[in-house]
Amino acid sequence: xxxxxxxxxxxxxxxEVLVTRMPILRFEAADTTERTQIGEGLVRFAVKAGRLETGxxxxxxxxxxxxxxxxxxxxxxxxxxxxxxxxTGEILCVGHAAERAASQRPTAN
Length: 109
Known about the structure:
- This is DUF8075 domain-containing protein.
- InterPro entries: DUF8075 (IPR058388).
- This protein is an alpha+beta fold.
- It has one domain.
- Helix content is 17%, strand content 34%.
- It has 2 helices and 9 strands.
- It has a 3-stranded antiparallel beta sheet, with no helix packed on it. Strands 4-8-9 form a 3-stranded antiparallel beta sheet, covered by helices on one side.
- The radius of gyration is 16 Å and the shape is globular.
């Protein structure tokens, strides 16, 4: 029961236990330093994280990221790529997102 396999966002620990990790989503470019427009598929993750903004003329749903990278606070600037950790609700710069993704990869024992 110590073997750990991964595939398509799921980690299997033994025959009876399934642990599902939600993905770290990468955005190619922030709209502004405060928010980026998102589609309906991401609304539930933004709500869970307390990052959903609505009611703007420019669009229906937005992901708030004015607090910057969750690791070091570096602001996300317009046009910058960034990531949204759907498990923790954190916004991450691409460097910290890559570090987190690498540390979350299951390894075989």
